[in-house]
Amino acid sequence: MAPPLHPAPASNPQRERDVPTPTTSSLHALFLRAVDPSRPASWSAAVTDLLSSGDAVAALATFAAAVRANPAALRPALPPALRAAAAATSLAAGRQLHLLALRLGLFPSDPYSASALLHMYHHCSRPMDARRAFDEIPDPNPVIVTAMASGYVRNNLVYHSLDLFRAMIASDSASVVDEAAALVAFSASARVPDRGVTASLHALIAKIGLEKNAGVVNTMLDSYAKGGSRDLEAARKVFDTMERDVVSWNSMIALYAQNGMSAEALGLYSKMLNVGGGIKCNAVVLSAVLLACAHAGAIQTGKRIHNQVVRMGLEENVYVGTSVVDMYSKCGRVEMANKAFRKIKEKNILSWSAMITGYGIHGHGQEALEIFAEMKRSGLRPNYITFISVLAACSHAGHLDEGRHWYSAMKQEFGIEPGVEHYGCMVDLLGRAGCLDEAYGLIKEMKVKPDAAIWGALLSACRIHKNVELAEISVKRLFELDATNSGYYVLLSNIYAEAGMWKDVERVRFLVKTRGIEKPPGYSSVELKGKTHLFYVGDKSHRQHKEIYSYLEKLLERMQEAGYVPNTGSVLHDLDEEEKESALRIHSEKLAVAFALMNSVPGSVIHIIKNLRVCSDCHTAMKFITKITEREIIIRDLQRFHHFKDGLCSCRDYW
DNA sequence: TTAGGGTTAG
């Protein structure tokens, strides 16, 4: 096997590779770097140089050349050679260097070789080999311990990492805990589900005077929000009192955006621009803010941020560009997403996936598959994530044959073992198409444990195809996995209601009550002049609620004149017809649309976000509303987009 | 004279 041209990215350890041997090109590199073979320092300098220029393989080859040319050069060149083996994730090369270190007497006595050796084993995903070596080191100094601790974090052995840190505190004076050790400790505590770890580390660094260190505090900010306490308020408190740099602002905004707190993210962003003390907008923060817009469906704000991206000349930037694509597609403007996508200069696999997903969630399965084909033509090899996008697109568009085709091609042609996400798409696709037994069969043959999303997909399919028996099987599994999710109870009770099994409906409702499960109320939100307005069913908390209700009344009258008949079949309570009709009139999406209509002109686009599925009556109602009022309405619900235009739902995935 | 480091984006 030819040695790889570039080392694997450090954050993505790959499998062991063959030891690179010196090649003509690396000897050429040697020549270019003017190594003086007789000077030992010249060899180590060449290895270090090549490594820092990103060519770990050439660095290793140079070391191998030194072995033959000048044995005296090995001692200083060994640590950088070990780091090269780590960067190339070449365990075979690393093991040979380990043997050499033993032969030269550099291990375990030389701390420089020792720390580099641990680093190598951790980067090659061999934490237990690192541990064995670590245990042979008689009196590991703080640098070695920190190398060990960070390696544990890299390999997801966070508790081992924290144990080392605790031992570090206990063993000696606290002065051994320096900036590097504290950074590692906080990065570990961000990955641990226990509450209070971050707070106790916080107390410790305050004691040893690292509380003013921006790097350490930024890492702490992150671990407050991501660690066991999941405490964004604590993170905000730290943020408010610290000396903030650009990373602090970006981190806090990103934390809000990632946790769905879009209003907070956007608010903090404008605060940063106004009172941030000279902190300037950059690519990182724009990506985070675009994520917040995508989540909130804040298309107007998203457009403003996009303008900012253009002004800063960042349209071609792959990170920002992909965020723009994601924002537009999540806000229902898939054509705008495509325009932004075309502007990205060096599209990576995630840019392509974002675009495939964009078309997919809008039900444009054909376009999604065309983008996929284009990606393959460009020479990129689809990976695990790409196939999630592709299969999800097939599932949303109801492309049964294509879905089956790509599912098997993924395994056979591309050697990718399907994960829960792929199974989820396939179960959804097969289930919706009515192939319930095939879907159930697929679940039974899964090698990984089916998660709630899989059984949930089967359960929804059971509702569509009115299969009570399989629904009960799915629910049983779902309750084993998560008995507190109200959604499953609602679905099950709906399935019983549609089958007229009112006694069972009552039984489920009784369960919900006795188990103390709370169902989050559904809401619809609409953005107006950059401000988001929220509506619940029958909501009267809005400032203009009186106007909204009377507007809606008149609108419903006009709709009924145009032929709209309330679809009371979707009301799953045991009510009489009249009660059912009035229950439908105050659905949150109708309130939100009425409010948006009052504040818009014909020809405009109304964009609504719904946190639950849009009911079939509201779906019908929107068709009439678009016809009467000449507005385009886009509703994004839990699973898909509905574009209503000219009285038609152009969403092809309403199948 | 060759060691250990983390946080922000899709």
Automatic annotation (TrEMBL):
Top-level taxonomic group: Eukaryota
Transmembrane segments: none
GO biological process terms held by the UniProt record: RNA modification
InterPro entries: DYW_dom (IPR032867), E2_motif (IPR046849), E_motif (IPR046848), PPR_At4g14850-like_plant (IPR046960), PPR_rpt (IPR002885), TPR-like_helical_dom_sf (IPR011990)
Ranges where the DYW domain occurs: 563-655
Signal peptide as annotated in the record: none
PPR repeats by residue range: 245-279, 348-382
Gene3D superfamilies, per the entry: Tetratricopeptide repeat domain (1.25.40.10)
Disordered, as annotated region: 1-23
Keyword vocabulary terms for this entry: Repeat, Transit peptide
Pfam short name (any one): Eplus_motif
GO terms for MF: RNA binding; zinc ion binding
PANTHER family in UniProt: PENTATRICOPEPTIDE REPEAT-CONTAINING PROTEIN, REPEAT-CONTAINING PROTEIN, PUTATIVE-RELATED
Name of the protein in question: DYW domain-containing protein
